[in-house]
């Protein structure tokens, strides 16, 4: 019980710092020019993970009741299990996808400017040389449902003639403009319920 009063100021400070950081990023985005270089930035990650984290944050205090499992009735236990399954069922799949996409594209940089006909991919700051003619096929995988927390997670796989496969996830940017740019290549658009790379 002594732990709760200690955690509250820490959580309030963390929430205030996060709110200030997001607010500053939002305000400075008005003065920044439109970038053509895409990386897994904080703002992009926050936009994708906002609803799963909010769901988890709202449900976590209720899930703490599992520590008092010996003192609650069967009816309360059933309600608690239902609530836990809803909270975890909505938030955990999106957070798992987010972690997988982050691990995949942590060191990836996409340079994309359709007006200048530029599409370049860098891994660890090393450019992967290819052109549209080097693409054997392109897979664009999107989520079947548009109403789930993980619906915005999608990816593009660029299969090169060398046998190399470049994976671009939605953690970098929205992939619809990139897929539109690659429409004259052998583009396969597939939909899945859960877009695991």
TrEMBL record:
Q: Which keywords belong to this entry?
A: Membrane, Transmembrane, Transmembrane helix
Q: Which residues form the PH domain?
A: 37-180
- Annotated protein name in UniProt: PH domain-containing protein
Check the record and name the InterPro entries matching this protein.
PH_40 (IPR058916)
Q: Which organism is it from?
A: Hymenobacter gelipurpurascens
State one Pfam family annotation: PH_40
Q: Which residues cross the membrane?
A: 6-27, 48-71, 77-97
Signal peptide feature range = none
């Amino acid at each position: 019980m002594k732990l709760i009063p200690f955690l509250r100021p820490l959580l309030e400070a963390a929430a205030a710092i996060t709110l200030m950081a997001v607010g500053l990023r939002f305000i400075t985005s008005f003065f920044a020019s439109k970038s053509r270089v895409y990386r897994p930035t904080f703002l992009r990650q926050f936009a994708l993970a906002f609803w799963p984290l909010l769901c988890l944050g709202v449900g976590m205090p209720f899930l703490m009741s599992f520590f008092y499992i010996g003192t609650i009735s069967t009816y309360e236990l059933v309600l608690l299990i239902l609530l836990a399954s809803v909270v975890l069922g909505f938030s955990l799949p999106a957070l798992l996808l987010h972690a997988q996409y982050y691990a995949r594209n942590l060191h990836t940089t996409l340079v994309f400017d359709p007006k200048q006909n530029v599409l370049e991919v860098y891994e660890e700051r090393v450019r992967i040389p290819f052109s549209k003619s080097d693409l054997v096929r392109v897979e664009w995988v999107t989520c079947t449902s548009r109403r789930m927390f993980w619906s915005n997670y999608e990816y593009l796989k660029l299969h090169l003639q060398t046998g190399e496969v470049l994976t671009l996830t939605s953690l970098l940017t929205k992939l619809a403009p990139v897929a539109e740019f690659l429409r004259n290549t052998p583009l396969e658009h597939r939909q899945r319920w859960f877009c695991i790379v």
